């Protein structure tokens, strides 16, 4: 490389798939007036599949409306409405508190339903969609189960989410898969393969670890893995199996898949704390709520401009003195506060790799004290730079542990999503670690919502064989293999 090349080159740049927006007016106009270009022009109109992702998280509650072009498999955002979960109203007299978030925000069926209803209605109003005419499907998910103690509490939360959707005017038929081709609106019938193949639980050609949940937020890992695959369609990266996904929400979610066909196996799961680590440090500034405050409360685009990066790296090393990353021991029923079942996981051949702060978060106050020290000595800019190094080092340690356990296949892709994984210089630092260990690395915004969009399609057998999302890197659509397998099992004729 020339001298000038060395001066101006900083190596490969992170590939970041950012969400792209489209309006409902454009979606409707496209359906009737625009033509798509392929080998020449086609008179076949583009058709969009509109899905609402309703997410109740430990830090944020969201309704994200997506529109997927069923010709190109590209997913757009119609609206993204975000509320802070800490703003869920307190329990009223007579209401039963069935659980709480990681940050000890108490939840009742009524308060959760109201928050979900209001978030959906705000999103619908902003996007100008008609629930009855425009919305095709709703997928509900939650990471709050990390703070729960029993399956009954989880069940109560799922009911509360459903009630919130119903209270917003969403009919039950839009929350369950169709039973036949005639169940679909006429505009979608040409896009479903429901008469050729059935939904058997595999989402984007990946089977869950076992019939029994091995981590409380298993669905989040499933959705973000699918969402990263969809987000990759905006880039030149073929993020298909084998792959590794990491979601840095408040809690950690993600999967490690192998390269089997037609369905990959989930051979590894991530669990524990992620964004909660950054939130714990930021609370040392005393500029955010001590219980529900988050790093995103203070984040801004120019927050890193005056950072002392050398000092930040040293502070991050000190933070990692309290962070425990390892294969989850078989005798633990929680890791990083998240309920886990290591025995069921290991019996099914799935390795659990967790991130904790002390034991089940008992060293979180130490991180808050460190945050106070950083803020007092070096200011807010260096504090946020520290968070970039902290998250990047979590990715590195998770990856190193997985490689040591032998659960990452050669040629695997790495995908990272979540608020504490893709902001600031985190992608740059993660890429520096991953570039020699993975075939490619991608960072995707809103992967959980993207995953909800593709899960809705999988549940309704709405694939795009000409642009496959499932299967192996570089491979063709696996529809034929699926049909052959399902016929052998007597699932289809």
Automatic annotation (TrEMBL):
User: Which top-rank group of organisms is this from?
Assistant: Archaea
Quote the InterPro entries the UniProt record gives. Answer: Methan_mark_14 (IPR008303)
**What is the designated name of this protein?**
Methanogenesis marker 14 protein
